[in-house]
Amino acid sequence: MSEDNNKLDPKKSKKDFRDKYFIKDIENITGIKAYTLRIWEQRYGMLVPKRTDTNIRYYEEDDLKYMMNIAILNANGYKISRIAKMTREEVQRRTLVISESNSTYQQQIQALASAMLDFDEKEFNKILSINILKLGMHETTTHIIFPFLQHVGVLWLSGSIHVAHEHFISNLIKQRIIVAIDQLNVQLAPDAKKFLLFLPNGENHELSLLFASYILREKGQKVIYLGNSTPIDDLNKIFKLHNPDVIFCAITNASQTMPVQVYVNTLSRSFAKTTVLLTGNQVVKRKDLKLPANCKVIASPEDFIVFLEMGA
Fold first, then answer.
1. Half-sphere exposure of 280 toward its Cβ, with a 13 Å CA cutoff?
2. CA angle, 295 as apex, 290 and 298 as ends, to 5°?
3. Residue 6: its pLDDT value, please?
4. How many CA atoms within 13 Å lie on the side-chain side of 261?
5. Which residue from 165, 189, 200, 210 has the least number of CB within 10 angstroms?
6. What percentage of the chain has pLDDT greater than the value 70?
7. How does DSSP assign 84-139, residue by residue?
8. Is the separation of the CB atoms in 70 and 83 below 8 Å?
9. Is 85 exposed, middle or buried (0-12, 13-18, 19+ CB in 10 A)?
10. Residue 291: C-alpha distances to residues 251, 276, 284, 297 (Å)
């Protein structure tokens, strides 16, 4: 996923960001194939696309949300012929009932996507709250939030959503994880180890690091959380002061100043007697990365938990 420092301009409406969705966007976001959408249009008249000056079919935001709701109903056993007879208000009402009562991961991801597209903070938080209540923070994050973020990344790269959508949901999710951490009331384990968590200088993708902090605190471990954009010199100073047992680093973006392999080698040499845990797309998806002996890639929350259970 991509994050930058752009801010949402309050003077712009939602429709300023995206007022036209083409059929490929509908397919990407809803999962409904383009040819299926055309058949539904012809057979049931469910949508009437508008056309650009160059005669290209497009849809508006309300059409997109309508099709997302249809996808959810269809996945829950509603035949398309039945859905076609409903008003849009009824389709939305039935979808909300399903979203609130059904904890199927994919349906919750779709519901989050719908709230994101509408910049609906209240609905987005409600969906998160319902799932956290039903499933707990750990399962919600692992099986709903992280897959949702991956889906958002794909939509952003394909141009189907604006970067403002990404900022919107990232900040809401970050707030929820921070609240969950604050609500933990766990005693330090007798054999607790000290973990130093940070992001490299220039890196701002903090959600995986925050969730690692949540898991560690939940399991009674000591955490020193430096957060995003930590210069290597500052990292060395903190390390000398606190001498952690493990350092944990998330690398999601390629650095403009230091290649990932060089950065990993630098961490390995600087903290040669310490275990260095690495996560993020730049290490998890790299096939050519050569790991020094004291470095280990953490590909998922499950990997991290296994590492902890083995005695770190």
1. 26
2. 95
3. 37
4. 5
5. 189
6. 91
7. TTS-HHHHHHHHHHHHHH---HHHHHHHHHHHHHTT-HHHHHHHHHHHHHHH-HHH
8. yes
9. exposed
10. 14, 10, 11, 8
Q: Tell me the β-bridge partners of 295.
A: 276
Around 140, how many Cα atoms within 13 Å sit in the side-chain half-sphere? Answer: 19
Single-letter code of the amino acid located at 227: G
DSSP string for 232-263: HHHHHHHHHHH--SEEEEE--S--SSS-HHHH
Q: Which residue has the tokens 């991509």?
A: 2
Rounded to 10°, the helix 23-30/61-75 angle is 40
70 in Cβ contact with 114 (< 8 Å): no
- In the chain, the amino acid numbered 221 is Q
Q: How many CB atoms lie within 10 A of CB 184?
A: 11
pLDDT in tens, 207-230: 999 999 999 999 999 999 999 999
Q: Which residues of the chain have pLDDT under 70?
A: 1-19, 99-103, 157, 256, 312
Query: How many angstroms separate the CA atoms of 186 and 167, rounded?
Result: 31
Residue corresponding to tokens 């998922």 = 300
User: In terms of Cα–Cα distance, which of 84, 82, 81, 78 is closest to 66?
Assistant: 84
| The residue count for the chain | 312
Residue with tokens 């384990």: 189
Helices and strands (H, E) in the chain, number of each type? 16, 7
Sign of CA dihedral 116, 118, 119, 124: negative
User: What's the token pair of residue 89?
Assistant: 């208000």
